[in-house]
Amino acid sequence: MGNLEERGRTTMVVRRGDLYLGVLGLMDTPRPGAASVISQLRDIGIDRIVMMSGDNRHVAEAVAREIGLDEAWGDLMPEDKVAVIKRPRAAQEVAMVGDGVNDAPAMANATVGIAMGAAGSDVALETADVALMGDDLSRLPFVIGLGAAAPAASSSRTSG
Asked: Do strands 112-116 and 95-98 pair parallel, antiparallel, or not at all (unpaired)?
């Protein structure tokens, strides 16, 4: 089981009564096109891309390696994600892309919070500064480029 976990798999022991039948290793797969989106983000000047996940650290690291991320943090609770966002935020602007209730606090503490609309929870959508209306990550470089080209607003957050 250790080898499966080191390769980013979540392990489950399968048994029938007292007879152990085997071990399964499951792993989330990256969204289709994620590696291409990471490459496009780098092309428009994003130099550090980090994944934060509540999933097992080994799983997060395996996915990050596969799609070309700089770093992955796993086993995170919502407050841990906020702490990760706050560290670089003191010195630079930070965007947070998320879709769940557990992502909302970190999105609220980022310079810009971006929610994945179709899969996003209501809390994530309400917290975010920008909501992508679908789950298509390929739109992310366009949105970030559009935001970079827009004139700076006098206030980073408005309520209404």
From this structure: parallel
Homologous superfamily of 30-149 in CATH?
HAD superfamily/HAD-like (3.40.50.1000)
What are the residues whose beta carbons fall under 8 Å from the beta carbon of 97, sequence distance 6 or more?
A: 114, 115, 116, 140
Pairing of strands 71-73, 95-98: unpaired
DSSP 82-110: HHHHHHHHTTS--EEEE-SGGGHHHHHHS
Q: What is the pLDDT of residue 159?
A: 43
How many whole angstroms separate alpha carbon 156 and alpha carbon 111? 8
Q: What's the pTM value of the predicted model, to 2 decimals?
A: 0.76
Q: Are 76 and 96 in contact (CB under 8 A)?
A: no
Helices (H) and strands (E) in the chain, counts: 7, 7
Would you list the domain boundaries of the chain? 30-149
d(C-alpha 148, C-alpha 160), whole Å: 23
Residue with tokens 């560290």: 87
The pLDDT assigned to 153 comes to 56
- What is the rounded distance in angstroms from the CA atom of residue 68 to the CA atom of residue 36? 9
Q: Residue 136 has what pLDDT?
A: 81
What is the rounded CA–CA span in Å between residue 38 and residue 81?
Answer: 20
**How far out from the chain centre does Cα 18 lie?**
40
